[in-house]
Each structure stands twice: as C-alpha cells, then as structure tokens.
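This section describes the prediction task in plain terms. A model, or a person checking by hand, is given the sequence of a single protein chain and must write out its three-dimensional structure as a string of tokens. No templates, partner chains or ligands are provided. The sample shown here is typical of the held-out split.
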Amino acid sequence: MSAFSGWRAALRIARRDAARAKGRSALVVAMIALPVLGVTAADLTYRSALPTKAEELTADLGAADARFASTSLGPVRLQQMPDGINWGTPEDAPEPSPEVQAKPVDVSAAFPEGSRYLTERSVPASVTTRHGIADTEISELRLFDPMVRGRIELTDGAYPRKRNEIAATTAFADASGLSIGDTVTVRGPEQTYTLTGTVELPADLRADSLYALPGSVIAPWQKAADRDKTVLPPQPSDPKWLVKGPPGAGVTWQDILAANEKGVVVKSRQVALDPPPDSEVPMAGTSLGYSTTAEATAAVLTVAAMAVLEIVLLAGPAFAVGARRSRRQLGLVGSCGGSRSQVRAVVLAGGAVIGGVGAVTGVVAGFGLTALFRPLIEDYTGSRFGELTVRPWEILGIAALGLVTGVLAALAPAIVAGRQSVLESLTGRRGTRRGSRVLPVVGAIALTAGVAVAVYGGVAGDTAFVAGGSVLAELGVLGCIPVIVGFLGRLGRSLPLTPRIALRDAARNRGRTAPAVAAVMAAVAGSVAIATYTSSSAAEQAYDYVPNMTPGTLALTATELGADAELPRSRAAVEQNYPVSGKAADFGRVWAGSDCSVHHREGNDCGELELVKPTGEDHRCPLKGEGAKELALRLSADEHKRVMNSPACMDENYTMVAFGTAEHKIVIGGADVLDTYVKLDDPAAAKALEAGTPVLLNSAYAKNGEVTLKATHAYSDQDGKNRARRPGAARTTTDRLKVYVAPDRYAATPGIRMVMPRKTAERLGLHVEDYGSFYTLGREATDAERQAAYAALAQAGNKAYLMASDEELRTEDDTILLILALFAGVVTLGAAAITTGLSKADAEADLTTLSAVGAPPGLRRSLSGFQCLVVALTGVLLGTVAGLVPAIALRLTDLRAALAEMRADPMQSAYTPIVMPWETVGLLALVVPVLAGLLAAALTGSRQRLTRRAG
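The expected answer:
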C-alpha cells in the first residue's frame, strides 16, 4: 500500500468518525473556528479601516488634485517634502523680517495654468439650536462642487446653494436637535440661515460643524462688526484653495517647486502617490524617517504563537476524547495488521479533517460577521471603510493556521493512541503510565528563570526580555501543572464523596486534566496581565490628572463687575436648565486698592493683595529651585510621591487661577462653599467661618496657626469714587490673621487657597463683591441641557459664564476589563466542558460500579459539576499568578522611565502603581468556576443504564 493510499483510508475513517460523533466534532470545529473567525474579522477590519494613501488623500482633498495654502512667513522661498506636510525655509535662508511676514501671498498666481479652484475658510461661531445655543465651526465651502466629492458627502436634504442656506454634519444635527428646514442664527451678527441638508465626512463621522457658501458668513459678519462696535469681529482661519489642475496633467512636482518659490505650500495627490526621487527634493536631506516594522512583526508573531498554543491546549483534550471513544476501532486497525504509524495517522487525519472544516468555517463566518457589523464598526471607529480590503495571502495563511492547529492538537493523542497495545484497545482497559519526573524539574527551572529574566527586563527597561521571560515563566508553570494536579488528589481525603472522587480522578488522569488546566491558565494569564496593566495605568493617569475644578461641581462666574453682573438672573438660568443638586454656594472676590481688572496696572495705580508664604524648609517645596535635581537623584518613587503630596509642593503643582482670585487665590464665602466646592465636611471649619476666622486649605502658608496678608492700597485717578474716600499716597499693610488650617489633602483644591468671611475682609479694609456660585452636579449634563443653559444665560444678558469640571469618566478602561473577563470566562467554560466530557468518557466504568453498589442518581450530576469546578478553579488561580509576572515586569519598565523623567524634572510625577483588577479576578476566580460547575451538573443526565463492566 502506498503512503497516499494509507492516508486516504485514514482520512476516510476520520471523516466518518467525525460525522458519527457530531457533538464532539462540532465542539472541536467551534474551538478552531472561533479563533480563526476572530483573526479573519480582525484582519478584514484592520485592513479596511486603515486607509490607504489614496483614501487619505481623498479624505483631505476630495476629488481635487491639490491643496494650496500660504504660510505665516510671507512671500519667501520655501522647501517642502512631497507629502505636503513637512516644509520650511532653506537652511541658508535668512529669517524673514516682520515686514516681509506681513506681506500678503498671491496664492492664485502659483496655480498651474488652466486650473480650476475652490476656496475654503472656517470661523468659530456660537449658533442657536433647537435646545438653545452651541459653539461650533462654520466652514465656507461650495459643497455641491464635484471637487468636494469623497471628502464630504450628502446624507439627507440638499447642499446649500444660496447665501442664506447652511448644511450641518450629522453629528452636529443630532447633538443640536436641528432638522432640515430649521433656522440657524449666528449669534453676534445675528445672521439667519436655513438648514437645507446634513452631510458627513467619511473619514471623520464625529465631525461637529456647519457649512455655508463662500462669502455668506465671514464677510457679512465683518461688516456687522464694522458698523456696530458691540459685535465682536470674526476670527477666521487662513484661506485654503482646492485646485483641479489642467485636464490630464494634474499638479506635478515642478508645479510644487514653482509654488514654493512664491511662498506657497502644496499637497498634491499625484506627487504624494508617486513621489519624486530624493535627488529632486531639496528638503530630502533634512527629513528623518522612522520604522516600526520589526517591532510590529515581533508582536504579531508572539500573539500568533500564543494563539496557536491556546487552541492546541483547548482542542488537544477534545481529540483525546475522540481517541478514547474510538480506541476499540483503533484496536481493530491494529489487529488487522495496521502499524502504529497507521494508527497515529487515523488520529492525525481526524485533526486534519476537523481543522480544515474549522478553518473554512471560521474564514467564512469572519467575512460574514465583518460585513454584517460593518456599520457598527464604522460608527465605533468614527470613519467609513473605503472598501472591504481583502489580502488573499493573509486569509489563506489564517486558514492554514487553523488547519495546522488542528493537526498539532491531535498530535499528542495520536502518539498516545499509537503506543497503546491492541489488547488494551480491544478490551477497553486503560493501562498505566507513570508521569515524567523530569518535566516538573524543567518546569520549575523555567519558571524561576523566566521570572528572573522578566524582572531584569523590567528593571533594565528592555521589553524584549520582559516578553521572553514572561513566556518562559508561563511555559514553566505548564511543566509544573501535572505535579500540581497530582497534589490535588491528596486534598480530597477529608472531603465528602463527590469532591473526593473528582479530585482523585483529576489526579489519576493527569493526561487529560493538565492540558485543560493549562488552557484555562493560558487564557486567564493573558487576561489578568492586560487587566492588571490597564488598571495600573488607569490609576497612574488618575493620580497625574490635575482637574480644573473639584470633580462633580459647576461654577457660575460673572463676566461683568459690580451691580452690572445681575447674578440672580444668571443663577436662575443655571438652576432651571442644568442638572444641579442642592442649593447654590455663593462666593465673592476680594481685592485691595483700585481693582486691577478695571484699572489695569500702569505704574502704581491699582492695588495688590498677597498671601505671603513663610520662609523655612517646612514652607518651601524642595523639588523646585536650588538643590532639587540633587535631591531627586536620591529619592525613590514612593519618597518622591510623599514630597509631591506635601502642601508646599502641591502649591507649586496646582497653579490654576480662577474665580476672580488673582494669584492670592482667596475667595469670599461661607460654610456652604466648603461643603459644595471644597468638599470639606468639618463642623469646626464651618464654625470658624461663622466666627470670622478664615479657613486655610494649604498649610504651607501658615505659621503658628496664622497667615500673613499683605495689601497694597493704591488707587487710580480714574477710580474717582474710591480715590475720593482714600486720598493720598499708596500705603501697604501687613496683617497677621488667625486661621483654621484644613487637612493637607485639601491643598489640592483647584483655584482656592483660602476661604475668607466677608466681614473679615471688610474689617481689613479690603473691597468685596459677589462674583458667582458653586453648584454640585447630580450627573453629567447632556448636550441639550448645556445648550439650553447657554441660551438662558444669553437671555439673562450674557453677564456670566459656566465652568464645569473637565473630568471624564474612563469607561474605555472598564470596557476593556469587562471584555477581558468575558474572554477568559468563555475559554474557562470551554476548557472545563472539554475535560468534563473526557472525564465522562473515562469514568463510565467507575460510574457503572457506583450505580451497581447503590450510589444515588444525582451522584453523576454532582461529580460532573465538581470535575468541572476543579479544572476551572485550578486554571484560574494558576493563570492569575502567571499573569502577574508580565504585568509587574512591564510596570517596572514604566517605573524606570518615570524615574528618569523625574530626575530630569523633579516636579514630574514618578508614581507608577501596580493595581490589581480585583473585580476581574473575582469574576474569574469565583463566578466563572461556580458557573462552570453548575452548567456541567445541569447538562449531565442523572440516569444511567447498567451495563456489564468490561474485563
């Protein structure tokens, strides 16, 4: 018999066996198909979502051949790269003088002869919406021109064709509540337009802007501002020109060089797609490039190798199930003269058949799901696919990977089946085989070496060592799993019957338990590693984040001074439209002498107020100034964090000035300001304010419970009212005030250093006036609520503005952690289901004996549940430990980089925490194993037909 005939028979047997055991075959096909599906869908999505060079140019230029633009340097000779992004003056050219820079550039003179062009210009504007008022950008561009196609597309209605018409992006129309036919008014010049259609930018679906005809917004706005000085003039961008070159010629590199001589920068489609040689590019010698091909290739190969390992570990026990169930059939092959290699060929052929079906199924399903969910993917990424890009060789490689994985998964069961004697196969006896004593020793050595290499890589900042050490450590744990599984059998001595049988069965049959545990461990290790790193990075970002205001608060601040502010009307506008909770906490501002915000400092004609910081080491930040870098070299990350969190250094780090306080950061207020904005719930502090004692939030300014307040009472001659009350020369006063010092953590309160009662400020001869209110937000405001509030403020006279906390909820991190937990959970359930099926195949004789001696029917269910629980829980715990190795090593790499930055700039944070994702770990360690056990118990039949035990 030829080799081909032998394999043909093996494939025929494997195909029939797969068709006969449909449930098991479907399970293995699904295990191979799912990763192939995921990789196929990811490849199609990545290739389709990643724009080609031509698609990038279309998103930027539309159907035009080029974009021409002037620079701020004036009509001077320029050099540029063919991409039109990098440009500059020649190295030997002198710096253009201000007079030259002020000269206009005749851009149209640089167009190739016979060209057609469009102008484009944008201006920020405040416009009316259905909900109220919104800030946006209006672009003047002739949208209906074919030259714009590909860059901007109509989604509904019609393009603007008259000067009183306007179009909106879909994102702006959705946020503003506007519909086609509605009126949009540009506030200021009060120009009114009719919304004729909605458009989208395929490369930026989240674009939030309006479009009008050239000359219909900016020019009339400027005329209105020239007529009425109360109308603020527009602040338009520099114009750009979209150019269609002569038919058949386009815009060539020679055209670009000629335009550069006139001070014009050009981005040409033709040149970007087919750039000239470097010898023709004057700027080529000064431009540098960077490639990450090697790093990307290494990352892809690492992920592919781990994916193959994962599938082999998952599918291997499933092929072992088939080999166990087909052992009589394999024994018949041997009894008929079949060699061991032919027995192995039958099992391997099963892997090839199942792997091939799984690969084809996965590729086809990947195409189908990508096409089905394409709109959702486009909305998520914020851009349209140019086309569904298919790389045939990549798809074939993915399919081949599935086929090879199926064969590799069947390799170990094939070897075991080939070693089994014909008599054992025909009688159903298992035989015994001692476990390897060398493998655990090698595993322990690999684990120790891998951890050492990963830690060294983390300390040295070498991610290659981190990756290699992490993989080596995980392989070491894999080698130790048989010993760990064997140890589990000893834990069942004091347990009830069912868990004791489950533990001993797992220990006795390590050949099927260890791969399933390893599969769970591998999946959980990767998920825990990424989740730990993600949680740690999120904690670091949260620590480094410097808020503009106390999170969850809103501030209403006056734009007019004195009685002109009309704050009550503005407060009513906010309270009626914004989701605020509780009462407003009113605050005021304080100053000495003439108000510098009105009488600007020119010499000595307005006052000054200063909160003087005492001298001494306790009041100075050692990380700033002389000796800071020397100190930073001696500090660890934790020591640096403690110093940075000291009030003196917080004062240097939190420098925002707001709420009309100037540099002294003193606001006038009462206990409600402490409660609403400072979040200081301290009855003693509230009592101090009522008694006229200021509350100091930064203890670095206090000495012996007192602060020094220095005031310069200088008055401008233009400040007639106050000047008449306080004639004479300017005077300076220094007062020592008893203060209530808040705990050190309140030194980080944005914008406020001290809260002073009104009566105390007036007693010191300072000037005070109401300036705004603080509110607590019940939730984040919607677009409609913001727009309604802005409109209400405008209706109230536009004499106040809103400041909201810029803190954004990091839901992306939470989503990543959830996806990782779900992925690891699914793999855990799958691996546990496989090993439970194998256990049932192996334990039929034992279950028959138990039934014969009177075991209750429910024993079969509970045994399956505990067998599943043992595999899932063991794999999850080992995976959690294994996943910490790369996560900690990578964080050590980050710590090294952070310490280097901190020692270069001592005020830079070096805080690099390692935060365990306890929610993810808890879900994996508690919920998933219990769920696996319950499902296994629920899906296992409790009745068993008694049969004669073999042998």
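For orientation: Residues 858-904 form the longest helix (47 residues).
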